[in-house]
TrEMBL record:
<keyword id="KW-0472">Membrane</keyword>
<protein>
    <submittedName>
        <fullName>Oligosaccharide biosynthesis protein Alg14 like</fullName>
    </submittedName>
</protein>
<keyword id="KW-0812">Transmembrane</keyword>
<feature type="transmembrane region" description="Helical">
    <location>
        <begin position="82"/>
        <end position="101"/>
    </location>
</feature>
<dbReference type="GO" id="GO:0006488">
    <property type="term" value="P:dolichol-linked oligosaccharide biosynthetic process"/>
</dbReference>
<keyword id="KW-1133">Transmembrane helix</keyword>
Length: 151
């Protein structure tokens, strides 16, 4: 497997991870690395390797610094060609840290965000990360891209 085929998929547990699993199904000819906060990769998720990062949110934002360090270590060692995330906070950090390594990233905003792009999606755009909405009207109003829905 060449380095060109290394893709890192990052998501928080729950709906974000379920949406990401649909992306993973389409990448079975690639070397897929999964990153999440689960203790181990859920059995329903396709992926060649699994890495765990700490979870955080606005309520415990200080943990963000630990996630930055974890993301840096994972990316430095594994060097994917692309990061794809469906959110939330750990996916945003991985995508931002990836920018410092020159790694392109795609942010797919959750289908739950049917009225507005998420705060994390707005932050991703500010860092030059390509943002996709699963709602055409949200994509237009947020100057994001729309190519359909995952669910």
């Amino acid at each position: 497997m060449t380095d060109k085929n290394k893709i890192m998929l990052v998501a928080s547990p729950g709906g974000h991870f379920v949406e990401l699993s649909l992306v993973a199904e389409c990448l079975q000819d690639m070397h897929v690395m999964i990153v999440s906060t689960y203790d181990e990769k859920p059995s329903f998720m396709y992926g060649d390797e699994y890495f765990q990062v700490s979870d955080f949110s606005r309520d415990n934002a200080h943990v963000m610094f630990k996630v930055i360090r974890e993301s840096y270590q994972i990316l430095k060692k594994n060097k994917p060609k692309l990061i794809v995330t469906t959110g939330a906070a750990p996916g945003l950090i991985m995508a931002i840290v990836g920018r410092f390594f020159g790694i392109k990233s795609i942010w797919i905003d959750s289908i739950a965000n049917s009225q507005y792009i998420s705060l994390s999606g707005k932050i991703a755009k500010a860092f030059g990360i390509k943002v996709f909405s699963q709602w055409e009207s949200v994509a237009k109003s947020s100057n994001s891209e729309y190519h359909g829905k995952l669910l």
